[in-house]
Design brief:
191 residues, 4 strands, 64% helix, globular
Length: 191
């Protein structure tokens, strides 16, 4: 199901050498994982088929319930990511899978969406609001109300991903470089 959704929304990236590299790093992480029998796959994704709808993942990585997706732009950036950086990234995303963050986020988002819908139907609206506007307001509210929840998941994945990467042989300086690069990327995105 995960791959079907991804191939519907993203182009595929046929990169056998990079795929083999990622699978080798995943094997190292699985060997030290607290859940060694839980199968986690890794796939490379290309650009979104409709950037207006699906964007933001092609230059990083994210996890579904069973699969880690790494964007081709991340793998082909200059300078290319080191094994230490990729071990940390994969360990971080693997933690999301092991902690069921994907499923929990879907449930939390669905619950909040239902709550918000009941708020719109209680009492009379002061003025007619078109559905596009209402949807945009609900989406912004959902993001702000779930932001702390997602931040907790990210911090948990940072911590456990770091431990897993170190256990799999990543060097502390390589992990530090990953955080430094992310900080610079975020600062550049805000400018």
């Amino acid at each position: 199901a995960d791959d079907a959704f991804m191939t519907e929304h993203y182009t595929t990236a046929d990169e056998p050498a990079l795929q083999t590299r990622l699978e080798g790093l995943m094997a190292r992480l699985q060997a030290v994982s607290p859940y060694p029998d839980e199968s986690v796959r890794v796939r490379i994704i290309g650009k979104p088929k409709d950037p207006a709808v699906m964007s933001g993942h092609e230059d990083g990585a994210f996890a579904s319930s069973t699969t880690i997706y790494v964007g081709i732009e991340e793998l082909k950036r200059s300078p290319p990511p080191t094994d230490d950086e990729l071990l940390w990234t994969l360990g971080h995303e693997m933690t999301h899978i092991h902690r069921d963050h994907y499923a929990k986020a879907l449930l939390a988002d669905e619950s909040l969406k239902k709550w918000q819908e009941t708020q719109w139907t209680m009492g009379e609206d002061p003025a007619p609001i078109d559905e596009g506007y209402r949807s945009a307001i609900q989406s912004r509210a959902r993001k702000s109300q779930l932001g702390g929840y997602y931040k907790e998941q990210e911090l948990e994945s940072d911590r456990f991903g770091t431990l897993q990467a170190l256990s799999a042989g990543a060097k502390p300086d390589g992990i530090r470089a990953t955080f430094e690069r992310m900080r610079k990327d975020e600062a550049a995105g805000e400018a």
